[in-house]
Amino acid sequence: MRAPGSELLADSGGAIDQQPSDQIDELAVTTIRMLAADAVQQAASGHPGLPMGAAAPAWALWSRFLRHDPADPRWPDRDRFVLSAGHGSMLLYALLHLFGYDLPAGELRRFRQWDSITPGHPEFGLTPGVETTTGPLGQGLGNAVGMALAERMLAARVNTAEHTVVDHRTWVLASDGDLMEGISHEAASLAGHLGLGRLIVLYDDNNVTIDGAATASCTDHVLARFAAYGWHTERVADGNDIAEVSDALAWAAEDTRPSMIAMHTVIGYGAPTVAGTSAAHGAPLGEEELAAVRAALNWPEQRFHVPEAVSLRCRELAAQAAERHQTWRHERERWARAHPELAATWDLSAPARPPANLGARLPTFEPGTAMATRKASGAVLGELGAAYPALVGGSADLASSTNTTIPGSGDVGPGRYSGRTLHFGVREHAMGAALNGIALHGGLRPYGGTFLVFADYLRPTLRLAALMRLPVVFVFTHDSIAVGEDGPTHQPIEQLESLRLIPNLRVLRPADANETAACWHVALHEDGPSALVLTRQNLPVLEPISPGVIGRSGARVVLHGSSAPDVLLVATGSEVDLALRAAQELTACEVAAQVMSVPWRERFAEALEAGTVSLPDCPAVWVEAGVPHGWHGLARPGDAVLGLRRFGASAPGPVVYAELGFTVSAVVRAALAQIDTAHRKEAACRTS
User: Fold this and answer.
1) Are strands 208-209 and 212-213 parallel, antiparallel or unpaired?
2) What's residue 229's pLDDT?
3) Domains of the chain
4) Which one, of 351, 350, 320, 439, lies nearest residue 70 by Cα?
5) Which percentage of the chain shows pLDDT scores above 70?
6) Which of 178, 179, 183, 152 is nearest to 166 (CA)?
7) Does residue 39 sit in helix, strand or coil?
8) Three-class secondary structure of residue 671 per DSSP
9) Residue ranges of the alpha helices (H) in 451-589?
10) What is the spatial distance between Cα 200 and Cα 83, in angstroms, rounded to a whole number?
11) Kind of pairing, strands 530-533 and 538-540?
């Protein structure tokens, strides 16, 4: 069978520019569809429907609008393309392969296999050209809002009247499922409010979800909804019409508002018996159906076939992209020569690393005074902000409580992007995803704050930040039952432990103001995301600490008591003060107690396992006002663990602590009981 496209080459002598563009378009679109169908069939797993249905609009975008360079997938002023509907990953892999990214055909054949770079859903840092890890629906759209915001914020900082070095767009391909998820409402509302006109969403409107027709569960007027958010909206009646799609994209690219383009497509296009149905969504077509697709689309039997005409067109487009990239490089060099101070401050080609001398800017707090760690964090932010211009962030409408404003830094708002304080509103879902997007974009270092109990709203974004190892700082305040009168709905019991379960997420719960400063330093210098867990209530300020101590061991001894203590009291956060007061009472009983603060439990556990930290040879009492499960993994035989196995209650904070058993006397009783047990065991051993 003669491969489609060979006739075109024969007619033109191989000069792609002489080919009728509509014929090349049709050939390229079919190539994308069949690469996806072949890969899913070979893997016996995957989602062929979206790539087959959305191939035409995706090709229109990549061949006519997307600003990218396959030879340098990370160049700073590239357009970002986010496949929010990550289950359609073969659409993206097919495009990356065709345009010459480092994604050879062999990797398409290894789709969804161990150690391939073509996983079931796109993964950031694994596949060249993948801008973010997507799969949980709606998250990619939320990331894209952060990317578009970062572009505007960087442009406001580095562009000058003579030189423009930040000037790109963020494009998103989203599905029905993306727009149903609640995060899409929050993210779209925020983008509309901020006027992020360089954000363009292509909505794959195929009216199919896993369980059947999308209209079985959702009859939203999507364009009216987005128009109400302040977006420019367009409808494309036929998503296979490249000209119609291109016109809509062109209008969107010129609009000053974020844009939503609803494109009517047919899921599983070309599959005779399953096209337009949920059967095309999440399973291979099967050999019989795939053969019927080949016949319907006049495609050769060869698997993973790419016509030479399509390869030549993509190489030509890639060459044009490289020329645009080179033009930008020259512009950046002129900008750097004309504005060396900007070039020294803003390295557009690298992540926003903290300044080398940042530790010297950390404030020191006076021992013996008292301060809530949330207030200490605000003071630290004020100092860090002056030395670290890339540090930006805000809160979910809680800045006055979380102390997450950099003083004098200016607000970010509609058309105002030079500030550093972000107002996310009561939108924790969107805040988390946008923070991830800002980190993914590069050039800025984001943080965001809310109450610890609302970390549950951030769960998917926390997990994805950890999965991608993004340098985001999540600030969680109101960390315990000390919240008091607000009651159990606002008193985190299980949240702290649940955060520690997330791999790669650094959970830091400082015991005082000086540990808070050290934890900020750790959060900004270690790889990956951090969660700072802070108090509302005042705590006594302890002796200053070097950030290196937390980084090395995750813990420090705050009261030695004796070189051979009778008991060890281990605590975190506000419970360290409780342990210190219990140690004083034990001293009156002629019991020598050592007190250890463990702001970073995971690092402490690693240090114990590695033998770089050891515990004294005495019983220990482990104290934290939360579920105790994780502490049992560190406790030794003969140790006691004081934790909570119930929700809190509404009452003044000290009353709640007392009623739930977190008192000096309770810690003392536990310590004495463990010492007594140890002595009785020792005596029994001597007797025997």
Assistant:
1) antiparallel
2) 98
3) 6-324 (3.40.50.970), 358-550 (3.40.50.970), 553-687 (3.40.50.920)
4) 320
5) 95
6) 152
7) helix
8) helix
9) 459-468, 495-500, 513-525, 547-553, 575-588
10) 12
11) unpaired
Q: Is 370 within 8 Å of 574 (Cβ atoms)?
A: no
CB atoms within 10 A of CB 351: 15
The string of DSSP codes covering 319-354 is HHHHHHHHHHHHHHHHHHHH-HHHHHH--TTS--PP
DSSP state for residue 3 in the 8-state scheme: P
Supply the pTM of this predicted model. Answer: 0.94
- Which of the residues are catalytic? 428
Phi, psi of 245 (to 5 degrees): -60, -45
In 3D space, the residue among 113, 73, 199, 87 whose CA is nearest the CA of residue 148 turns out to be 199
Say how far apart CA 561 and CA 541 lie, in whole Å.
Answer: 19
Q: From 679, 687, 529, select the one nearest 602 (Cα to Cα).
A: 529
Question: How many helices and strands (H and E) does the chain possess?
Answer: 25, 20
Quick check: 8 pLDDT over 60? no
Q: In what order do the strands lie in the sheet with 259-264?
A: 80-83, 170-174, 199-205, 259-264, 232-236
Report the distance separating Cα 353 and Cα 467, nearest Å.
Answer: 20
**CA-based angle 100:106:110, to the nearest 5?**
120
CB-based contact 554:603 (threshold 8 Å)? yes
Tens of pLDDT along 408-428? 999 999 999 999 999 999 999
Say which residue the tokens 């000053």 belong to. Answer: 256
Query: Residue 679: what pLDDT?
Result: 67
* CA–CA separation, 163 and 460 (whole Å): 39
Rg (CA), the chain: 29
| Res 450 pLDDT > 60 | yes
Average pLDDT, the chain: 93
Instruction: Pull the structure tokens for residue 637.
Output: 């035989």
Element (H, E) at 439: helix 428-441
Q: Each residue of 233-286: pLDDT tens digit?
A: 999 999 999 999 999 999 999 999 999 999 999 999 999 999 999 999 999 999
Q: Where are the alpha helices (DSSP H) in 160-286?
A: 176-180, 182-194, 222-228, 242-254
For residue 602, what are its two tokens? 């995971």
Q: Is 600 helix (H, G, I), strand (E, B) or coil?
A: coil
CA dihedral 681, 686, 687, 688 (to 10 degrees): 90
